[in-house]
Input
Amino acid sequence: MDGVRSRQREQTRRTLLREGRRLFTERGYGTVGLAEIVAAADVTKGALYHHFESKGDLFREVLREVQGEVAARVAATADAEDDPWDRLLAGCRAFLAASTAPDVQRIMLVDGPAVLGWAEWRAMDEAASARHLVDALTGLMELGTIAPRPVEPLAHLLSGAMNEAALWLAGSAHPDRDLDDAWSALARMLEAFRAR
Amino acid sequence: MDGVRSRQREQTRRTLLREGRRLFTERGYGTVGLAEIVAAADVTKGALYHHFESKGDLFREVLREVQGEVAARVAATADAEDDPWDRLLAGCRAFLAASTAPDVQRIMLVDGPAVLGWAEWRAMDEAASARHLVDALTGLMELGTIAPRPVEPLAHLLSGAMNEAALWLAGSAHPDRDLDDAWSALARMLEAFRAR
DNA sequence: CCCTTTCACATACCGTCGGTATGTCAAGTA
DNA sequence: TACTTGACATACCGACGGTATGTGAAAGGG
Output
């Protein structure tokens, strides 16, 4: 183990993921061919199919990577806050900021559901990100900070709102102003669920 | 005009749109081939390319049809209400209900942005549906019913929330209960923007 | 140290797909 | 009736995703 063999293997795999991610981001899953990816990674299709089961499988692993990075950034930002309510706000804001990156947009928000199907995409998002949102909301209900109500539909509404807002923000002509406005509106939405 | 020629033409076109819509709904844009579509429509590829510029163009016209139907149902439901605030609520609720249909899900919500790109998808949605949401919100601000604030970010947040909620509802094990819960949460979100 | 096995690829190939160029024949027109 | 137009059908092409097989270097045992 850990010899020349496995090191080279890991590098090839990482190169394929990196170039795949770059090309999927730039031109979209449908229009980029495997030939381009393996050329950019300076390997052949044999190598790609040795590491991944299919084009869709490569995309799935790329998506997993992107989701992991977003989740990590959101978690890091949220955990910097002490108050649970502030953690929720900080997490949402961090998600909004992170999701305006081109690779997150195209891979995670646009192509993801279409390539893998909405159900699988949802399951992956749940495991990476949405779970934390559900946990945060549940915790705040137990604390009495927000009024008790079914968590899932609320989480989906908020998640969908943030996804669409991020896509809109990425194409905005006045990103700073629009981000402020969107955040203001989102914050008011969240505020609406605080117990009175 | 209006002879045998143009009547046959219109029928062929409508058949292609109908079968394309059905297959795109059942199996998704990426996995259905033109050969299947033309076989189902009982014509050849020559006919398809005589009516549409490409596979993507056929999809675009199918999407336009779906969006038009959703918009019409929403508008009809909303217009049945007299009070502007009630019109907004009724419209949102009608959108939520209409968007759980399989063809709306797959074509409008999942494949649409990926196939045409988010920007074009957004523009089409704007022209068909979102425009009414913006108009309703603007009108309510002018009436003083909801507090003045930038309309666009709010509209995007609400639109995204409803889209994601609809996708979630479609796969729900308890559709009635979940629809009620989702609507309850969405209504509270809307309520949050009423002037105090 | 050598022989064997393993494995991380490379090469060659296949069926299918979206797209196009061209042919055809009936409906329209003068 | 002679001619034109148009709504397709037919035949074909390059490119794509996927697979079967070959290969040479690294790992492992005696």
